[in-house]
Protein 1
Amino acid sequence: MTTRNLKTAKQGLQGTLTIPGDKSISHRAVMLGSFAQGITEIRNLLHSADVKSTIQALRALGVEFEEQATVLRIRGRQLADLHAPSEPLDMGNSGTTTRLLMGLFSRLPFDVELIGDGSLSKRPMDRVAIPLRTMGAQIDLTNGHLPARIHANDRLQGIDYTLPVASAQVKTALIFAALQADTVSHIEEPVVTRDHSERMLLAMQRPVERHQHTVIVRPGLQLVAPQIVVPGDFSSAAFWLVAGLIVPQTQLYLQNVGINPTRTGLVKLLQRMGATITVQNRISTAEPVADLSVVHQQLHGIEVVADDIPGAVDEIPMLVLAATQANGLTIIHGAQELRVKETDRIATVTTELNKLGAQVEELPDGFKITGPTRLHAPAGTMVSSHGDHRIGMMLAIAALITDGQVVLEDADAVDVSYPQFFADLEKVLV
Ligand code: S3P
């Protein structure tokens, strides 16, 4: 566990950053590429701990990966050509790897066991296992959690299912199983969540249909290997967008950012707070990409409701930080999903920002934030990521506007999604 002295931005942040590859899209590219006919080529894959967990799991089943310069090549396999792994598959810290693979692995001709780190082993897995079992999968969990055993299975049937919580991970797990089922599936989500899987299946010539909130999946896992260029991760860009707005004397230009509308809810919320974010050089292929620029601005408080959450689910910690600097009250409701992320983010965001003098109140399903507050760190102030990458990076941005010295415990957690985060911070610190 590493501690790190966080820096203050005395003269703002200036410059251009190229945002590293999207984590969600990287996982999906590796997983679907593993079963495509031909060689899938992936450029700008995110090289982070979570994506490594996905690659290692598939490699352990016999999928071949070859990395050359900046391209990852995958030689796709038929399910029947895979072999049983010699040991349990380690999901590390990655909820996406675990839940998506549970769907993908629900019709394998051999057993697999999934294990994970302490945080992942506390996260709910029954939300995926229960509907997958209805389809015929044989999955044993440990009191609803990892370790999980997925038993050999040769039959899946389609499902008609309404997700009780809006979750792209659960939706995707069911889509991956539905592609291997014998009958058609209808998967309905209460609020539309990130649609990267649906877009990637289209790029692999195996489209699914959408009618309003329902995804219709017909059987068949015949995927054509594509060439994928992973866009920059909007969730990583979010740290710089909010930094740009709240750090005085700042001007940032963010290149290559994925702006899929199911992911960019934070932009809309910041606009409601009064922000202007400039979008340039839009390119639309399978996933839309653009450059974003932002300068320091005064924001005002807003009210956030449940329908706003899925499009900004990973960015709420940054929204709370922005609200600590906004004029007036910000109230966030309907965010109870944050309690089952890498940490209970309602608790960790509140505890850690209040150590710096913020006025954040924890609600059962969100936050009440009074702004603006001057953040300060009396000598010896330690904050902690609690092992959660997004909490660590949010605190590093908070420290930029904090008087005094902030020390971050468990700073290495950022490696889960953004290993070059601190190097990028150095690039733009004036
Ligand atoms: C993800 C979906 C979201 C998000 C996670 C990545 C995905 O989780 O929080 O970081 O890649 O599908 P939920 O589906 O649990 O909301």
Protein 2
Amino acid sequence: MPSAAHSLPIDVSGLCKSYGQVQALDNVSLNIAAGEFLTLLGPSGSGKTTLLMALAGFVRPDGGSIRFGDREMITTPPHKRGLGMVFQSYALFPFMSVAENVAYPLKIRGVSKSDQTKRVERALETVQLGGYGTRRITQLSGGQKQRVALARAMVFEPQIILMDEPLSALDKKLREHMQIELKALHKKLDATVVYVTHDQREALTMSDRIAVVNNGRIEQVETPERLYRQPHSFFVADFVGESISLPVTMANDQARLGTHALKTNLPIAQGRGGHRLVMRPELLEVTSGAVPETANDFSGKVDDIIYQGDSVLVVVQHATAGQINVRVPANRAGQTGLPSKGERIGLALHPEDTIIVPEHVA
Ligand code: ADP
Ligand code: MG
């Protein structure tokens, strides 16, 4: 067996693509490290598929550069880019068996029959479909079809694998299971993966880094944790994770909510438009006594208590900020006892959790 080739970095620079009036890609630049799992995350119509198809060679950009390692790819046809691809629809050949589907990329590359058989078996074992080779595609469940598509994408040991919403046709339980499996599989394959999803939770679960796409532009590229805790714009803060937000005024680097000067340890990004305070429900702390001086005080009256299984949502009415949602883990709620409706409670937002973002990136 030939040993696996090493994964390649991807360098995208100044990529543009317009369809009539629509600027699907607006000067996109992105560096993806060799072996990285990078996710393009954004709402429908933001340009994720256009960017992925440009990487694959199916969309010809109006301008810019795409390099795999040190090779410029912009004029290279799709079949010469050496990519593995998985689509939302799987795009399997329904009239072929599982093994024939997986063998297809090897066949068109002229790999010998005996080598094909070995490599197909190994790829099917990797996706836990050992022994399924003779099945028809029509005899498989959605999750199994998805795995066949995956086996076909990796059977020729590509240095780069592109995936466009590959799990979106699966039900929630199977989707969450496959997220963990795909992540584990990436660790085994020495490949750079570019993954597309509109599901922020999926992106947080799977990625080494996430590129947030908005209106044909990349707003921020970060690790999941930093993206969640230190968003650079209101769009990113709002799209990733649960939050409520309030407009604040900025003067001499001091953010104020009404007359209250906000304490924060986080950097405040520059941008266009005003700034907003972003509060994550699980980062607010219900205090037993008064809120400590070091924290921002959002104490108020409890409007409602909503049991949600794994957590309890406490809805607090604050004099100037209005309604604030606080999430308390269910086990902790059980231990400390929950406040009751109508009670006044202390609510602290600590400086390390106080996120202030510009409305728009610069
Ligand atoms: P996403 O994958 O994030 O949902 P797309 O990359 O498919 O977004 O689309 C980005 C924008 O480009 C959308 O406004 C879409 O309507 C437009 N678009 C994409 N492909 C074409 C095309 N072949 N012709 C015209 N407009 C297109
Ligand atoms: Mg798409």
Protein 3
Amino acid sequence: MTRRRLIIDCDPGTDDAIALWLAFASPEVEVALVTVAGGNAGLESTLRNARAVVALAGQSVPVVAGADRPLLGTFQAEVKVHGTDGLAGVRLPEGLPACPGQAADAIRDLLRAAAPASVTLVGIAAATNLALALATEPALADRVDEIVLMTGALGEGNWTPGAEFNAAMDPEALAILLATGRPTTLATLDLTAQALVTPARAAALRARGGGHCLTACCDIMDAVPPSRRLGHLGHALHDPCAVAWIVAPDLFTTRAVAVQVECGTGPGRGRTHIDRWGRSGAAASARLLETIDANGFFALLGDRMAALR
Ligand code: BDR
Ligand code: CA
């Protein structure tokens, strides 16, 4: 099996941590680089968390710090879901130091040394780091086989009424990625709402036993509050859906769509306009993940997490 090489750009972040562990536990992929942005918490916390998540899984992949704020506008953290520490109060042992340098430089260095269409960019934070890398050396986009993003919403947002958090935090960066012309796949809030962590699913996962990562994963699931938006039935496991698409695409149904992101300063800032029916007349520019087999997804997560240390 050829393993796909991933760059994961993240802001851990409770669900980012689980997405990283799912990737580390999946033989279909090799995580070549982890880059970190401020987002769910400030950059100091998200970087500390990324280092700890990598170390808990016994990995030595380079972790590089990136943007502590969006291209434009001001930084805001998502403390209601992820707490002020970014991991909803779940303490992990300290990881190894971060690699020196800047995320965008590290992304460009890795892409420069790669063959055409041989690296997958996985964006599970505001798109700032990935956009900075590709905007400053656009020719490197040809090294990318796919850009997989947890971002956007067809329906209601989770940050503003119309906008999802990652898209709302840096809509200009998202617009830069959408304009690269590389195959782009979107896991939106409408998709991730189907990957609902219910008390029963969290308990079933914990009952599998397993190592430090599975225990920490379950502690995180128990610590995240149920979502008001989702009727308090549980919380959506957003970012792992992006990784699951790469390692188990059969779990999904998809549709080609045209996408635009609002970059104005009004109340619609960060809103993604996703045209499922060709109403805009614009050519399809992305693949929308429409449905996920939720039971299959949690079975995959359990199998993979149970194999981690
Ligand atoms: C996205 O925003 C963050 O809070 C999560 O980590 C996820 O990437 C969901 O809107
Ligand atoms: Ca995230």
